Each structure stands twice: as structure tokens, then as C-alpha cells.
């Protein structure tokens, strides 16, 4: 490792070896771990919604690993209070090296590896105790009930579960279908059987098991088909935004996550983080199961993203009575983007909106959203100083 040129390292503000994650450190992830879920929260300047984030997800987790950088707000005070509030679950680690924006020409030459996001993420990753791993973001506030349902389905011994009639029907249909060598005929057979045995209308065309089964059955079927070690559960959330100090759903870009970024899986050495051109990334198991909306995202509020008018906004109180087909034409047109992104947009948000909008109710608002919104409004100048401000004009 080259000598670091940053002032922290030159002034020996810490022992570099305490933070540097080596290949041998990462190999601990291949050791057997007890069944359970480890959350990993990375924090800097997150006073706006940090408390609500933790309170809304902590019951879902067996432990919450929190790594934090020195902050300019009262983030550290909140973290220490929550360490006392949930002492059996929260494990708090102060990551002292400042994180430096990635530059591929300087990476590990001008600065030490400890200043980059991949090392920072791996520093927390190697501390997990349980089989399942999921990133938790401080600007996400979670739907506790949906998380708890997911937890229940993951902890079950799949070999001891009696599968539902719908799962067994679908398994039989697929087993017979795979005997048909021509894909077009195979899908015609599936479509015919599913119309008949799942009471679909005559216009139904087979387009995936997740659109036939309930969420519970879809998760159990996925676990039955694949080893738990080979499944990634992709989670998403609703993008919220402030406009004239009122809360709205951003219907131009309504979904946060849902593709590779927020994934629950059984972590191993092969899932270590590394840097790409801009961000930290990692390889997760290839059998990807998309499960819909699990949180509201306050990141656009934190970063002061604002539209110049309300055309692309749906007021929070109107969400529960809205249907996605009433505004899907306003969603970001990404037909020219890659097919995976289009699939995620079309089949995740549109599929799950009508089901998951029920979580965006007044109880959730009063319990979890009131204080972060008050904070964002009262501390707008401080947030602008930290993150800037962006006015979005969409034509």
C-alpha cells in the first residue's frame, strides 16, 4: 500500500491498520453463521431521519451494525442514544478516516484504501454475525409490518413447510411445460393452464410466476426452487419529495432501489465490495427475486431535489386512492435505456404500487414522517449547505 497523502494519515490521527480491510479479513464471510438477519447502516450527517429509520427496521433485524463517519450535525449523539436503547442489537463503530471521492487515477496510489467506500463498506460487512445481510440507509423509513412478514418467510425451514395448493399447481404446470422444447409453445401452454386453473381472464398472457402467486407464496416457491445461498431478494421503496413544504410521491421517478442496490442475501467472500467508476458495488447471488416496496425514501428531500411545478407530483394523502394507470404515463420514459431497467420499472413499481400503497397511511405518517419533515423544513439552509439544491424541469 502506498503512503497516504491525506492530512489525517500524515498527522497520525488513527492507526491505519484498525480500518484497513484485507483479503484475509474478508474470508471470514465464508464461515458458517447462525440463521438470522444482520443489517448494515452507514451514517454521516443523517440527523433528519436516523431515529425513524432505526425504529422502523430494528424489529426485523437480529443485529444492526452501524459504521459512522464524523458528522457536522448531532448524528453521533443520536447513535449513542440508540446504542443504549437497543443494546442487544446495535453494534456501533466510529470509522475515523474521511471518505474521499473516487478517482480511478488516484485510487490506492495518492490515498490509502481506507478512504474509499469499498473499504468502508467491507469494514462493516466483515462484522456481521448472521446468515442474511442487508444494507440499511438512514434516509429510508421502513414499513415494519412488511419487513416482519419477509423475516417470517426467510426464517422458516423450507423443508418443513407444506406448500400451498397454488404453488403445487404452478410447479406441476411448469414441470409439464419444460417438456415442451419450443419456447413459444411452452409459454402458450403455461398461459392456457394459468388462465384455467388460476381464474385469469382471456386476455391474460403468461409473464412470470411473481404475477400469479401471492408475495408469500412467491418467496416460498423461490426458496423451494433455489438454495438460499443463491437467492438475492431485491427491495425497493417509494421516492418522496417536498414541494411548498408538503409531502408528495415523485411520480416521474417513483421508485428507489429495486435493482442491485438494496438486496438481502446470504453474504460470503464473493460478495465483497469493490469500486467501479463512481460507486461501491458487489456481486450478489444471480437468482434475483424482486419483492416490491419496503420503505419511503427521504434522500431527494435531504438533497433538496425540487420540481419547478407539481405536474409530476402526487400528494401523500392522495396516494391511497390513486391507481398506477392514472399516472404511469408521467413516469420517466426509459424505453431507450437497457431492458433490465425497463423491466424493473414496468414490472416492479406498476405491479406493487396498488398493493404497497396501503402502507402510506396517516398512522405511518404521524409515527415516522412528521419529525423528519419538520427537521427538513426548519433546517433547510443547513441541508442546502451540505448537499446543495437542484431544481428539476421535466418537459
Helix-strand layout with pairing:
Elements: H1 7-10, H2 23-26, E1 37-43, H3 50-57, E2 63-68, H4 75-85, E3 90-94, H5 117-125, E4 132-136, E5 140-142, H6 144-155, H7 165-177, H8 183-197, H9 215-225, E6 231-243, E7 246-250, E8 255-257, E9 263-266, E10 273-275, E11 280-282, E12 287-297, H10 299-302, E13 305-307, E14 313-315, H11 316-319, H12 339-356, H13 362-378, H14 380-387, E15 390-392
Helix pairs in contact: 7-8
Outline the structure in words:
This protein is of the alpha/beta class and 395 residues long. It has three domains: 138 residues, no CATH class; 66 residues, no CATH class; 143 residues, no CATH class. It has 14 helices and 15 strands. The strands form three sheets. Strands 1, 2, 3, 4, 5, 6, 7, 8, 9, 12 and 14 form an eleven-stranded mixed β-sheet that branches. A two-stranded antiparallel sheet has the order 10-11. Helix 7 packs antiparallel against helix 8. The longest helix has 18 residues. The model has no long low-confidence stretch (mean pLDDT 91). It comes from Brachyspira hyodysenteriae ATCC 27164. This is Glycosyl transferase. Keywords: Plasmid. InterPro entries: GalNAc_Trfase_b, Nucleotide-diphossugar_trans.
Amino acid at each position: 500500500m502506498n503512503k497516504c497523502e491525506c492530512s489525517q494519515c500524515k498527522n497520525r490521527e488513527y492507526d491505519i491498520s484498525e480500518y484497513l480491510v484485507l483479503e484475509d479479513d474478508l474470508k471470514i464471510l465464508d464461515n458458517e453463521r447462525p440463521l438470522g438477519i444482520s443489517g448494515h447502516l452507514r451514517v454521516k450527517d443523517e440527523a433528519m431521519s436516523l431515529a425513524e429509520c432505526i425504529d422502523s427496521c430494528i424489529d426485523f433485524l437480529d443485529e444492526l451494525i452501524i459504521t459512522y463517519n464524523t458528522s457536522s450535525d448531532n448524528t453521533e449523539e443520536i447513535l449513542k442514544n440508540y446504542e443504549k436503547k437497543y443494546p442487544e442489537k446495535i453494534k456501533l463503530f466510529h470509522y475515523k478516516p474521511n471518505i474521499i471521492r473516487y478517482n480511478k487515477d488516484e485510487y490506492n496510489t495518492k490515498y490509502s484504501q481506507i478512504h474509499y467506500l469499498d473499504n468502508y463498506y467491507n469494514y462493516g460487512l466483515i462484522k456481521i454475525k448472521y446468515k442474511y445481510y442487508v444494507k440499511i440507509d438512514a434516509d429510508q423509513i421502513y414499513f415494519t409490518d412488511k419487513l416482519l412478514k419477509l423475516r417470517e418467510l426467510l426464517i422458516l425451514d423450507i423443508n418443513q413447510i407444506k406448500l400451498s395448493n397454488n404453488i403445487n399447481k404452478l410447479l406441476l404446470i411448469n414441470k409439464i411445460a419444460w417438456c415442451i422444447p419450443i419456447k413459444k409453445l411452452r409459454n402458450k401452454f403455461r398461459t392456457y393452464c394459468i388462465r384455467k386453473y388460476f381464474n385469469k381472464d382471456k386476455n391474460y398472457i403468461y409473464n412470470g410466476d411473481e404475477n400469479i402467486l401471492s408475495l408469500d407464496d412467491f418467496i416460498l416457491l423461490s426458496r423451494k426452487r433455489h438454495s438460499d445461498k443463491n437467492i438475492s431478494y431485491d427491495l425497493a421503496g417509494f421516492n418522496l419529495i417536498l414541494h411548498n413544504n408538503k409531502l408528495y410521491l415523485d411520480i416521474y421517478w417513483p421508485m428507489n432501489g429495486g435493482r442491485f442496490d438494496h438486496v438481502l442475501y446470504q453474504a460470503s467472500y464473493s460478495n465483497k465490495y469493490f469500486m467501479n467508476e463512481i460507486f461501491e458495488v458487489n456481486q450478489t447471488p444471480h437468482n434475483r427475486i424482486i419483492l416490491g416496496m419496503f420503505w419511503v425514501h427521504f434522500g431527494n428531500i435531504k438533497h433538496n431535489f425540487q420540481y419547478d411545478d407539481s405536474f409530476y407530483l402526487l400528494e401523500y394523502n392522495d396516494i391511497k386512492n390513486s391507481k398506477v394507470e392514472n399516472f404511469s404515463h408521467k413516469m420517466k420514459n426509459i424505453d431507450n435505456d437497457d431492458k433490465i431497467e425497463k423491466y424493473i420499472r414496468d414490472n416492479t413499481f406498476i405491479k406493487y404500487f396498488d398493493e404497497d400503497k396501503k402502507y402510506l397511511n396517516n398512522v405511518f405518517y404521524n409515527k415516522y414522517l412528521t419529525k423528519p419533515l419538520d427537521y427538513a423544513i426548519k433546517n433547510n439552509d443547513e441541508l442546502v449547505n451540505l448537499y446543495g439544491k437542484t431544481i428539476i424541469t421535466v418537459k
